Amino acid sequence: MLNFFGYEKQWQFLKKSVELEKLSHAYLFSGKSQLGKSEMAREFSKLVNCQVDCQSENFKNKPCNQCQSCQEMQKNCHPDFLWLDTKKTALGSIAEIDSIRNLSQWLHLKAGLSEYKVAIINQFQNFSLPAQSALLKTLEEPRGKTVLILICDYPEFLSSTIVSRVQEIRFQSLSNEKIIELLMINKTEELLAKRISYLSLGKPLKALELLDCERMKIEEEKIIRFKKLLKGNLAFSFKEIEKIVEDKDDLFQRLEIWLNFLRIIFLERIGVVKEETIDPEKSISLVNIKNLLSSLEKANYLLLKTNVNKRLVLENSILELF
Predict the structure, then answer these.
(1) Residues 240/225, Cβ–Cβ less than 8 Å
(2) Helices and strands counted in the chain (H then E)
């Protein structure tokens, strides 16, 4: 991403906190996926421990990418930096809670190479409430110079106690105009930039990914499959859903694409969007689009938050068309 395009205010706030030596002990980077939260969290971690003096004239160049600390971060082997990804733990298990406890113990150790111990927990909303509770003591009683960054796509899934103990840095989806501007900076043709802006869901990293012809083709194929599902009979729709739920990793991405597609054609139908951008399906009534959109929103929430039967939830949503 180009210098945290669209999120300059967030970056400047974090950089200023380092310059003034007013770091919070814990941050929550919240917002949808592919907005650049992880990238900014890593860069902020590098900034915190960059060995350039905050009071020197060279501060504006922090992180310098030249000092030992910056180089160790670039090689992913910094002794005072820890990245914890929830995908590598069994959710709700003893191992999940142990990973939090181990993290807390690691934060209590004194920094070796740098001034601060910095830890990032990615996709923190995936942790169960018992695991979140295990982190509370660390948040309430920080020791020494430590910085903890929680990256979260769905902050509404976190306990209110956790949210009250951290400083939240919010990332919003960018407008279509900002996405087009980003793409035009990358020398994209205007028509393609406009199409990508609608498919990217306001996510700059996704927009840049869609510049790749293969990725764009895959994205459009998923939309075509969804349009066939909308036009097909009930038996065909249920067979499609059966195939989709088999790929757990792709399921939520597909749901996001479906919801975006439905939102766009709904806005086109009511005249908010003045021109057709994704070849909408005109055979479906506005009422059915509205009902399916609402039902899929509920399904998305249930699939993210509970152990509900995935196939059954999606089948119930598609029934809105019949």
Answers:
(1) yes
(2) 14, 5
Phi, psi at 254, each rounded to 5°? -65, -45
Segment 217-260, tens digit of pLDDT: 988 888 888 888 888 788 888 988 988 888 766 788 889 889 98
Rounded to whole angstroms, how far apart are CA atoms 314 and 34? 25
pTM higher than the cut 0.90 = no
- Cβ-based neighbour number of residue 221 at 10 Å: 10
Residue percentage of the chain with pLDDT more than 90:
46
Supply 197's token pair: 């802006």
Q: Tell me the C-alpha distance between 99 and 37, whole Å.
A: 22
Judge whether 317 and 295 are in contact, CB under 8 Å: yes
Residue 56 pLDDT: 67
- Asked if the model's pLDDT at residue 88 lies above 70, the reply is no
> How many CA atoms within 13 Å lie on the side-chain side of 261?
25
How crowded is residue 314: how many other Cβ atoms within 10 Å of its Cβ?
26
Tokens for 164, please give them: 């009250």
How far is the C-alpha of 87 from the C-alpha of 122, rounded, in Å? 9
